[in-house]
Model the fold of this input.
Amino acid sequence: VSRLLKRTADILFIALVIILQNVLMGFHIGGPIRYGIGFVFTAFVPGYLLLSLLFDSRKNQLDSLTKLCLSFPVSYSIAIIIGMIANEISSSSVQSQIQAITLSLLSISLFILLMMVRSKTKETGSHIGIFSFFLISVMVIMGGTHLLVNSHPPNAQTHTSLYLAGEDGGRIYPPQQAPKNTPIHIQLGVEYDGEKAKRVIIRPPEGSDVFLDLNPQAQEVMIPFTIIPSTSGYIQYTWRLIDPDNAGIERQVDFWVVIHE
Amino acid sequence: LPRVSLPGEKFAHWRKFDIEEITGKNKMFEHPESKKYDIVWFMLTLLLSSGFGAYLAYNNITDPFLYYDIAFLKNTQAIGSLNFPDSGPFASLGLAPGRQILMILLANMLGATPGNFQFMPIGAIVISMTMFVVYRHILGSPSLASLLTLYLVLNLSHASALYSIFAYAFGLPIFLCFVILSIQFLRERNYRDYFVLLIIYISLNFIHYTMTVWVILFILGVSITVGLQRGLAKKQPKNFLTPAYYLATAFIVFFLIFNNVLYDSYLPLVKYETLDSATQRFFAYFFYKPESITSQFTYDRPIAIDLLSTLTLCFILMPVIIGIIHDLTQMVVNRKKLTEDKMLPLIWGIVFLGIFDALSYSLRGSISTKSFSMIFPLISILYLMRTRKRVIYYGVAMVFLATSVVKVYLFYNEAYVIPENGTRYRDVMMSSKWIQSHTEEQNYTMLSDLNLYGKYLVLSIDQSTRPILRAYTLNDFQWVINEGGLDDIGEQDIIAVDKKSYQPTLSFVWQIYKPLSAYLANLYNNPHLNVIYDDGLILLATKVGTRE
Done:
């Protein structure tokens, strides 16, 4: 059993990866496991099978670790050539699926070939300890990237935005002119997605935060502010909005005003 | 494939690089002795590289040109088929179809959305593994291999191009694989290596032209060196390699026939002015910056970063230059030693690659130091290993790594690559939708920084309108911030500014200007501009007189 396991451990592991990947894809299962299995399936398995077929580890043509690591660039090369062939022969709307299926078929073919070669020779696979340790490490690292990129979603949609409006509700853009010690009436417009944004915190340039419950039926709310500039010159006022429903994302809007005597 | 039988066969028993041959009786390099530590060094390298990749991914660091690939990937996923258009923002991607296919395949298999896929540290993982094993083979020492691998992976000058899924992240591991297998092929002339080399080369042709040219130059350089060694030897040298001129020729022919980059993108740029500009830019490394390539609006990296980059380059190049001079002297003084040096083909192959790569870029406007800084550390250490003084080559390898670590600190401190510097997709979403609701035409021209434009391009895939980049020239930049009596900037539909970013404003091909966020007051006061949208993060403006 030990000898049999030594000869077949790597291909059994690969068989498991091929089966799991097809199950995950078939049932549209995503997440860290799909990241780990999918990466090994695409970027490792074809190259490893090809290198195992071509290079006999008994004759020290490529040592275990080298074969394992070089499997990645070789897999890239195989995936590109297979993808380009599939792209040429398939019809337009299903090319992505065709590429995936072709890669699966190629991996299975190489897998069967390797089984046949191993059954006729006494060739063993990569060192079992290194092989399993290596592949599991790669899978765990790739699975971890799923948690990473999803913990800080780069393409999360914003639920809210800010703008400045005058008393009549029309948008205003800096710089504005105003006399000293005269009140400036300005409105802070908050645009939001009524289904997603529920409450926001407004942090004005002066004074305390304003907690605002948003009406789900509306898409916009106007908050009036009055500022009385006491010094002349070029002054910048900043309003901040904190959106607790959207990972605490902050927005800010600046009001630049030239105050004259 | 037929077995190729060549004169070098009688030396086919040479299985590994014989490091001892060039290092005398120094046993420390003998591979089997250090083998038990291989996996420890390997795991250490992999974990540190992955960790750094994770850091970059978390901070959404990306190469600005990658946005084109991501937008194309998103478009392909949406329509379900792969078509390379002849015009528009995706026209140039048809020059590297293999890269797009690989990205589509990987994204589909991983079930990753394009937005997440863009920041996955795949490059950091694969490059660290491949580089480690290749360097370990060549240097015979896992610790040296680990130091040199970490030097590159942690190097923030190259990080955005290497750590995720940009062309170099796929191309560099394939190139390294080619290096190790080609040496094996030249030694053994075996069909296995030949077959894998062909697969690798063909695919590399469709990933990135730089790596393809590297492969051609490398195999040519190695073959010429081996031929030279054989020619100089009085009797058949003990060298186990056989030149492969026919393989290099086949690669060149394949490149000329199947790769249109040369005709569409390279040759049209070759002219005297670009060569002149390249020379000036090269001297800028040594702090000589002529007026013609700089202005008060050109972005100057902090002096500490420039100084460190120049010092690193000197550290890398000095041993190589001295080593080459020594080799050339040996050609006259001690030919036997030179002709029997088994590392020489590899070293000179990489030197040949580096010199011609740098010169080839010079015809496009900038002498490239990419190959010097990415793969020359290997030959630098190989030359230093000839001194047989462990402290020297380990010391220099550690200095290489230290420069990368210091760069992390410097770049972080100088707000060049730091968290929350610049907008993310979510910040641009609202303005992107706003543009869509105010634009009737299918395409509109956007004068913008490359990083910001890329986000609009990716977001536009879900919309009916598509932005076309109008990259900044110095004149455009000065016009937008209302500095100086300048020519009109001509027709464009919209000007987009990232108010949050302190990163330099990127234009096409080696032109970078100061961050526009530093000139917001000028922008607001520009009488030629109409601000039409401002949500605190993004400012959109049009030229006065432009129809809305």
Chain B has 23 helices and seven strands.
